[in-house]
Amino acid sequence: MNSGFPYIRPRRLRTSQNLLKLVSENSLDPSKLIMPYFVMHGSGKKEPINTMPGQFRYTIDELLKELKNVIDLKIGGILIFGVPEHKDELGSESYSDNGIVQQTLRAVKETYPDLIVITDVCLCDYTSHGHCGIVDAEGYVKNDETLEYLAKISVSYAKAGADIIAPSDMMDGRVKKIREALDDERLVNIPIMSYSSKYASSFYEPFRDAAFCTPKFGNRKAYQMNPANSDEAILETELDLDEGADIIMVKPALSYLDIIYRIKQTFKRPLAAYNVSGEYSMIKAAAQAGYLDEERAAIEMLTSIKRAGADIIITYYALYAADIIAKM
Ligand code: PBG
């Protein structure tokens, strides 16, 4: 005799895939996936990122070609990271009208006006020292001074065409500051997707190679969260929501499924989870070594993030997964 729900696990080895799909509790939808892209100056170049097999740094013209796939596969949106030409103490390319992200936004919006383009707002790609804020001579990150810059970057991105502003720096009070700056410029309809609980994680390592933003000294533990903490994620998220965040985020995703679950249960707000570079590269490397099946592992990873409670998943596997989902 079968107990429980015989339709879900009918003990029959040749159970129909359609039946399993019909009774499954969660599924992946490409329109809920966001694909990150690294953009650099120049033209006609698509540079492989060694630490992230299958991912590239694109010049704008090459990115526009690539985005055809994003449209065809009906991906929910893209997240832009700039690889600047020029780095200095104040990260000045980040808020320049001719910065790489601003140029990208104008080009993408001209070609694909309906594509949702999200911009990561942070100084670390643009500062010579690689930290997410302004650093003083004694090695302190100057929180409040950094907020002025984050606000300036956000307004500049929104004016260049960004649909959503996503601050990833983890400075205190940034969401409020950015909201006020956007509202002052009448950009009241630009939502903020806040990296509300961002952990100081080893899983960002491949990204730092992709964006050339490894800190030259110290580390990010002074402003990113301790992986041992969970209540702190609730507190950080609460603060960001009070300050006006529209979408909240947990980052990384895979080692933090409990945090995703808690945040979704507690706040019931639109929640994004960032399936970060290290999570992508781990599966890539294992698949390349022949240790596991990439398609199954990638889909299982993304499904678990969804099951934990994420509404939106930011993942380097977005196009790959959408392609598999279309065939399923
Ligand atoms: C910038 C930023 C980082 C990531 C997203 N935005 C790097 C970091 O904080 O060190 C990591 C994304 C990834 O690993 O895929 N602050």
Structure, described:
The radius of gyration is 20 Å and the shape is globular. Strands 1, 2, 3, 4, 5, 6, 7, 8, 9 and 10 form a ten-stranded mixed β-sheet that branches. It is built from eleven helices and ten strands. It has 328 residues and is α/β, with parallel strands linked by helices. The longest helix is centred in the middle third of the chain and has 18 residues. The structure holds ligand PBG. Ligand PBG binds next to helix 6. The site of ligand PBG has 11 residues, from helix 6.
Write a concise synopsis of the structure shown:
Helices cover 39% and strands 14% of the residues. With 328 residues, the protein is of the alpha/beta class. The chain has one domain (29-327): Aldolase class I (TIM Barrel, Alpha-Beta Barrel), CATH 3.20.20.70.
Count up the helices: 11
CATH topology: TIM Barrel
Share of helix among residues? 25-40%
Bin the strand percentage: 5-15%
Walk me through the topology:
Elements: H1 17-23, E1 33-40, E2 46-48, E3 56-59, H2 60-72, E4 77-83, H3 100-111, E5 117-121, H4 143-160, E6 164-167, H5 174-184, E7 197-198, H6 205-210, H7 231-243, E8 248-251, H8 257-267, E9 271-275, H9 277-288, H10 294-308, E10 312-315, H11 318-327
Parallel strand pairs: 1-3, 1-4, 1-10, 4-5, 5-6, 7-8, 8-9, 9-10
Antiparallel strand pairs: 2-3
Bound molecules: ligand PBG.
